[in-house]
Amino acid sequence: MSGTSPNIRGQVHQPLTIAVIGAGAFGRDFAVACAAAGFSVILEDVMPEKLRNAAAEFARIGREVTLVMTVEDAVRAADIVFDFVPDELESKLEIWSMIDRMAPPKTVMCTPSQALSITDLASCTYRPDRCVMVRGSLAGQGSVNLLSAKSISQTTLAIASTVLTTLGYNVQSHPDPDLPQLLKNMHATSL
Rg for the chain (alpha carbons), in Å? Predict the structure, then answer.
């Protein structure tokens, strides 16, 4: 099932395209792992030096990846987007707002975070049912938790799980365990 995505019935269809936002060490390593697993990868960073370093790494392992300098170019054809921006609310909201506006409606948005609530992030998008969070280390392999807000679609969970299990992670899906921090979510959860 390498490099493919399941449809709602779990059957495999078109090759999966993964956009990785941020070509720092973690984003670059994740993109390398995705390319090595057979996924089509688009790696974005606004810093040319980071993209040059990434290009050298991909050449070293004999894999091709598309390198771009804008979020719009990265997400245009993506099935799933992983962002590797700092794990703080303001940075995540800024990049998620851009991804949400520029990616096609089918695109799943995924972020690694140890501190934030996926309920908060998803509620700030037009696609809360297509937003997930990875909790656990994406450096190497091991177990990770795939967190979602209440409105998650099964297709979203299937696509994100497919990517992570293909990369060798043991994936456990859970609803968001964190208390929302945004005022509109705190009000909605108290009703």
Answer: 16
Q: Quick check: 85 and 97 in contact, CB under 8 A?
A: no
Pair type for strands 80-83 and 66-68:
unpaired
Q: Closest Cα partner for 72 from 94, 48, 104? A: 104
Distance CA 17, CA 174 (A): 24
| Phi-psi group of 175: left, alpha or beta (phi > 0 → left; psi -120 to 50 → alpha; rest → beta) | beta
What distance in Å separates the CA atoms of residue 22 and residue 104, rounded to the nearest whole number? 20
Q: Residue 149 in contact with residue 119, Cβ under 8 Å?
A: yes
What domains lie within the chain, and their CATH numbers? Answer: 4-190 (3.40.50.720)
E-strand stretches of the chain? 4-6, 12-15, 17-21, 40-44, 66-68, 80-83, 108-112, 131-135, 143-148, 170-175
Angle between helices 48-61 and 25-36 (to 10 degrees): 30
Give the global pTM. Answer: 0.88
pLDDT tens readout for residues 14-62: 589 999 999 999 999 999 999 999 999 999 999 999 999 999 989 988 8
Q: Of 2-6, 61-65, 181-185, which range is least confident? A: 2-6
**55 and 67 Cβ atoms separated by less than 8 Å:** yes
